[in-house]
Amino acid sequence: MTSPTKDTTTTPPAADGFEERDIALWDAIAEKWAKKDRAASSRAARKQRLLRTLDAIPVSMGTDARLLEVGCGAGYSADYLKGRYGSFVGIDYSDELIKCARRENDLPNCTFETANLKDYQPEAPFDVVFMIGVLHHVDDMDAAMSQMVSQVKPGGWIVANEPQPLNPLVHFLRTRRKGHDDDYSDEQREIRPSEFRTMFADAGLESIRVVPQGLFSTPFAEVVMNPQAVTGPLSSLACAVDSVCERLFRGLLMPLSWNLVGVGRRPL
Q1: What's the CA gap between 55 and 253, in Å, rounded?
Q2: Residue 185 and residue 71: Cα distance in Å, rounded?
Q3: What is the C-alpha to C-alpha distance for residues 83 and 64, in angstroms, rounded to an integer?
Q4: What are the angstrom distances between the C-alpha of 251 and each of 163, 170, 209, 210, 257?
Q5: How far apart (Å, rounded) are the C-alpha atoms in residues 266 and 149?
Q6: C or N terminus of the chain, fewer CB within 10 Å?
Q7: CA dihedral 127, 37, 214, 87 (to 10 degrees)
Q8: What angle (nearest 5°) sits at the alpha carbon of residue 182, between those of residues 177 and 187?
Q9: Under 8 Å CB-to-CB from 125, ≥6 apart: which residues?
Q10: Domain locations in the chain as residue ranges
Q11: Fold entry, domain 18-265
Q12: Cα–Cα distance list, 84 to 17, 111, 239 (Å)
């Protein structure tokens, strides 16, 4: 399912047939994708990425928070965040991924639904709406942001973790992967810090901040590396180093990190 490499830093994916192709890809690789959260090496890095993403919210969510994850995949965020929410809803437009989520993360106060963000109508608004590596897959990011704003409470938060292009080595590796990995969607783009801020501001959000995430741990989050007896401890070490670097040297990491976290608050 690959196509010729294109400059995804400036050209958004074509809307024509985009969602159908993306759904077909995720349905086809759902079981393989879920393995990333089962293997020790990738599980540690994926949990780290999630926690660092939500830690970008400058206030405590509270253990009674109502959370929505857009593009929840196999639903492991519900497991990783146990004890940090009152209720959790995960949506994904891949029915096969939702089947995995319901089978593998059937937890109290958790619900998983097959739904497209642009059509999703929750029964009540959420305290936090978040997504990990999802926004860059949609064909209209501004429309997606507007939809998320409508689903969060006044005073609630929207958070997104997305790939960024400022590190030329990372950008090169992603571009090469698009041309060689059939399980890696080539209809996606990287988002610059200025684009993140503009997108959040245009959606009417306030208290906007953009922070770097992921130096050494990100490759472990994306690919299951074996043997686990070796890569598991290496992944844990990478996560620990990233935590220290992101806490102490955040301002210096913007042009080096794999990802960016954008966070904004819906006005009261």
Answers
A1: 17
A2: 14
A3: 9
A4: 17, 18, 12, 10, 11
A5: 7
A6: C
A7: 10
A8: 70
A9: 66, 151, 152, 153, 156
A10: 18-265
A11: Rossmann fold (3.40.50)
A12: 38, 16, 20
- The pair of three-digit structure tokens given for residue 142, joined into one six-digit string: 């501004």
Identify residue 148 by its one-letter amino acid code.
Answer: M
**Phi-psi map region of 14: left, alpha, beta (phi>0 left; psi -120 to 50 alpha):** beta
Closest CA to 210 of 76, 53, 75: 53
Q: Which amino acid is at 180?
A: H
- Asked if residues 82 and 107 have their Cβ atoms less than 8 Å apart, the reply is yes
Amino acid identity of residue 31, one-letter, is E
Tens-digit pLDDT profile for residues 70-92: 999 999 999 999 999 999 999 99
Convert the pLDDT of each residue in 172-191 to its tens digit: 887 776 656 555 555 568 99
Q: In the beta sheet, which residues pair with residue 261? A: 161, 211
